[in-house]
Write a structure and sequence with these properties.
Radius of gyration: 18 Å
Shape: globular
Strand content: 15-25%
Helix content: 40-55%
């Protein structure tokens, strides 16, 4: 499987560079109604747009990646989607990578349509990486794997998520491995087919989502791709938890924090302080544990 669009470096190489210069923190933009009201904004598309602008002002230039939660934009219809397009442009202008948290997953031509919407050059919703759900089968996502690799973009495939409802399914065993481990192994197999060109040591473009709050995380040492790890902050996990679960993969792990940062808003300076403190904590953790390649 080839990687890259011809004019854009592969996602793994771009992610490694961003992690090296900005640390491990990925901050979400989650304009849910309670936060909009807490910030004194309307629960409408205009409020979502203003929330997003202030968020990007606070941390867009500090972190390697920003993760807008697509649902909170879609609920406001066309105007909300227009605000999301503005956010994706703003993330790029701030020098960060965009991770669209859309959790798409379907089959055949429908999955191909989602892939074109989020991963095709020229699409108004094109992002650097997209979250996808494998629970119609990892192979059902092949259109997204192909589109991402061909355009120099990335995927984060849900593997072991931190929501309580996920446990019985993702811990279930089939063929001697848990469902979550099987997802990681399938993603690893696809990373192994990627031609990394002039940067053979960079992570592949295909990653997984593993919660920092889980006590039964799948092995990540053979993934050779990025990890998106939510759960730090308000959900109860710490940077140390993320480092322990990621292990050798911590050097290309995005530690996702959303509410812990956003609840400091709408004060832009206060949000920046929270992000800077968390970024420093991640750097200290990496140095203290001697993580290979960690920023």
């Amino acid at each position: 499987m080839s990687s890259g669009s011809g004019h854009r470096a592969p996602f793994g190489a771009r992610l490694r560079a961003a992690l090296g210069s900005r640390g491990n923190l990925c901050v979400g933009i989650d304009p849910h109604p309670a936060l909009l009201e807490a910030w004194g904004l309307g629960v409408d598309a205009a409020g979502v747009a203003e929330f997003s602008r202030r968020s990007l002002e606070a941390f867009g230039d500090l972190v390697p990646a920003v993760k807008p939660q697509v649902a909170f934009f879609e609920e406001h219809g066309a105007a909300g989607v227009a605000a999301l397009e503005e956010v994706l442009d703003g993330i790029a202008s701030a020098g960060a990578l965009s991770v669209a948290d859309a959790k798409r997953g379907d089959i055949g031509s429908t999955m191909a349509g989602y892939a074109r919407a989020w991963l095709r050059d020229g699409s108004p919703l094109a992002c650097d990486a997209l979250t996808v759900s494998p629970y119609l089968g990892v192979g059902a996502l092949d259109a997204a794997f192909e589109a991402a690799a061909g355009a120099g973009r990335g995927l984060f495939v849900l593997a072991r998520t931190s929501n309580p409802e996920a446990g019985p399914l993702q811990r279930a065993e089939a063929g001697g491995a848990t469902v979550a481990q099987s997802v990681v192994d399938e993603v690893a197999r696809r990373n192994a087919t990627i031609d990394r060109g002039d940067d053979p040591t960079s992570p592949g473009p295909f990653g997984v989502v593993v919660g920092a709050t889980v006590d039964d995380a799948p092995r990540l040492d053979e993934l050779h791709g990025p990890v998106l790890m939510p759960g730090v902050g308000q959900q109860g996990a710490t940077i140390d938890d993320a480092r322990r679960i990621a292990g050798p993969a911590f050097g290309h792990t995005l530690v996702n924090v959303s509410r812990h940062v956003l609840r400091a808003g709408p004060d832009v300076a206060a949000m920046r302080d929270v992000v800077l403190d968390l970024t420093m904590a991640a750097r200290v953790t990496a140095r203290g544990d001697g993580a290979d390649g960690a920023p």
